[in-house]
Amino acid sequence: MIPPFDPSMLAGPAQKILTGPPKMQEMAAKGVALGVMPGDLILLLVGLAASPDATLAATADKTLSNLAMQVLQTALTADLHPLAIHALATRYADRIDIFGRMLGMPRIDLDTIVEAAKHCSEEASEMIATNEERLLANPKLIEVLYLNKHTRMSTADRILELAVRNGVEVNLPAWKEAAAAIQNELILEPTDEPNPDDELFRETVQIGEQLRQHGDSIEDVVDEDDHSPEAAAKEKYMPLAQRVARMTNSQKIRLCAIGTPEEIMLLINDPSPLVSLAAAKAPTMNEAVAEQVVKRRNISAEVLSAVGQKPEYLKRLGTKRDLMKHPKVPPSLALRLIGYFQEHELTRMMADRNVSGSVRQLIKNHLERKKRG
Questions:
Q1: What is the structure's pLDDT at 136?
Q2: Cα–Cα distance measured from residue 190 to residue 188, given in angstroms and rounded to the nearest whole number
């Protein structure tokens, strides 16, 4: 665990600056601290970045992110304090020449590696993923690398397969589905350059993010009346749908974990139940997406059940109504929803032949109990 900053971590000259006059602190926040060694300067900047003086803190933080190469090179030869390593590793994870040297430091804390792995570059994630012993001992590291969109798809597959093979469970949105899918995938050896599947996944993520920026309504993604997963995409989303259709189940499940709501709309009724369930468990699944999902007649009962288990997805009465009227709604879910409707609406549902027979019977039983009660 990364220790909190403590002035006692600093050598004498740096401590004097930290408690010295404001002008001296301002100069140090800009990286000018006479008599202070580079390793101590980094710790001093960490302390100043936590200052209650917002201007001073912002200046120190900016300096930490833009240290002179000479300062960095000298600091990297020292026995840096774990807090100094953390400050550099989380800011320079995209500088593989710097990050690589810090990754090999004996005093680097696991929390530092985890924090850097959340958003680090492809090159840095490749370097972190090579240490299988550390990955297996710390499943959180596998989790954050898998969810980092810069991690190659082939690398995500390798670390996932490593965990499954060694009986290590990872806290992922659809761990069960991901673990099942990876056992049917061909796991490729690491290469210097991304392979075609890596490029396909990267392009798909980029296209999804570009489409999201246009701010379209989630209703604009698919045509409810078309039951083919690929053809269901409206014209604007066809390039995205075509790439998704080329993916393996493992790739689709990872896309569920890091993709956009629009991609979830494309994946929610994938032919593979593993993928469709992963989509229902996606972090970007929300009440707006759920509202559109339950309107689709070709959604499976398992997906409807997964969506229905999250009360935050069912805040809208229209979503509950569409679930009640869905031909595949599980009776157990319909039973939980009955209480949200007034008697006159339940009466209409009971007479609606589009509502499944089992749900109409549940409604009938419910209304009869109310009359007796």
A1: 97
A2: 6
| Residue/partner pairs of 303-312 with CB below 8 Å, 24 or more apart | 303/268, 303/269, 303/276, 303/277, 303/279, 304/328, 304/329, 304/330, 304/333, 305/330, 305/332, 305/333, 306/277, 306/280, 306/281, 307/280, 308/333, 308/336, 308/337, 310/285, 312/286, 312/287
Write the CA distances from 287 to 316, 319, 335, integer angstroms: 8, 8, 20
Phi and psi at 171, nearest 5°, equal: -80, 80
Please indicate whether residue 187 or residue 217 has the higher confidence score (pLDDT): 187
How far is C-alpha 227 from the geometric centre of its chain's CA atoms?
A: 29
H or E element at residue 211: helix 196-213
Query: How much is the pLDDT for 230?
Result: 45
Is residue 219 scored above 80 in pLDDT?
no
Distance CA 25, CA 245 (A): 57
Instruction: Grade residue 129 by pLDDT with cuts at 50, 70 and 90.
Output: very high
d(CA 229, CA 152): 26
Residue position matching structure tokens 């609606």: 352
